[in-house]
Amino acid sequence: MVGSETHCAIIADIIGSRKMSAQDRKQAQEVLISKISEYNVNYDSKLAAYFDFCAATRFKRFFIDVKMHTDSHSHFARKCILYLFGLG
Amino acid sequence: MYPVSFRIGIGAGDWTIRYAKESSNRQDGSAYHNARYAIDHLDKMTNRKMLFYSNNEIDAVINTLIANEERIFEEQTENQRILARIISRRHMIEPASITKEHCFTIVNVVKGCVSNLADELDTSPQNISQNIRRGKINDQKELQSAIIWLLNQHF
User: Fold this and answer.
1) CA separation, residue B41 to residues A15, A45, B25, B48, B88 (Å)
2) Residues 8-47 of B with CB under 8 A from A
3) Which residue from B minimizes the CA distance to A79?
4) Inter-residue contact B80 to B134 (CB < 8 Å)
5) What is the pLDDT along chain B (155 residues), one digit of tens a residue?
6) Is the CB of B147 inside 8 Å of chain A's CB atoms?
7) Is pLDDT of A50 > 60?
């Protein structure tokens, strides 16, 4: 479980999303997507597609799943954590 | 609607089923299941917003550090949070370069930027120092450094 064989997945739940309007919920999802996207060092269109697809299909469950697919996954995990700490 | 708050489950593990051009939902592996495990457990932990899970002994240590960091964050005022963010962005060490020593010496990094911050924010150094102390920003940065260092070491 060390080195380049370890990958990172993130599941984010928007707090209070059940009480949001559909428009606000969509906006909140977009905020999360854009913020996490900023910290993917190997950002590419494929990842963007993952984000978009998940935001649309998981709409009713208010979840966005991010599945990493690069060799820099651990770096991504750190970047996400940095962002969540307000360090990004 | 701002600020938007999130609960985050972070999982580390394998990515065994891959479809290069398919969506996230078509992929699978323990990384995903660990993230799901983490966020499912967050539902039972009312005061927590982030949980890390890798089915590894180090998880307990990382999550304890994360919990303490969250606690400090929750107690900070908005100004203290902004100050902590500015310190991180402008004066902290590159995450990939964080070593074990930084976990104990980060206080000097924060101290060293008081004058610059006072100039940048057009306030007194005393005011900056007071906000750093009351917001426990030194403690927060030490915890963050320790978390990043542990992640660097184990993943």
Assistant:
1) 15, 32, 21, 10, 29
2) 8-15, 18, 20-21, 23-25, 27, 29, 31-32, 34-36, 38-39, 42
3) B95
4) yes
5) 456 667 778 887 777 777 666 656 666 778 778 888 888 888 777 778 888 898 999 999 999 998 998 889 889 998 888 888 788 766 655 655 667 776 666 666 677 788 888 888 888 999 999 999 999 988 888 888 788 778 767 76
6) yes
7) no
Compute the distance between CA of residue A56 and CA of residue A65 in angstroms, rounded to an integer: 11
> Rounded to whole angstroms, how far apart are CA atoms B107 and A70?
34
Q: State how far the Cα of B8 lies from the Cα of A82, in Å rounded to an integer.
A: 13
Specify the DSSP element, H or E, that contains B109: helix B102-112
Asked if B34 and A9 come within 8 Å (Cβ–Cβ), the reply is yes
How far apart CA A82 and CA A86 sit, in angstroms, is 6
User: Mind giving me the DSSP string for B115-145?
Assistant: HHHHHHHTS-HHHHHHHHHHTTHHHHHHHHH
Report chain A residues whose CB lies below 8 A from the CB of B155. Answer: 1-2, 6, 8, 74, 77
Spatial separation of the C-alpha atoms in residues B123 and B1, rounded to whole Å: 31
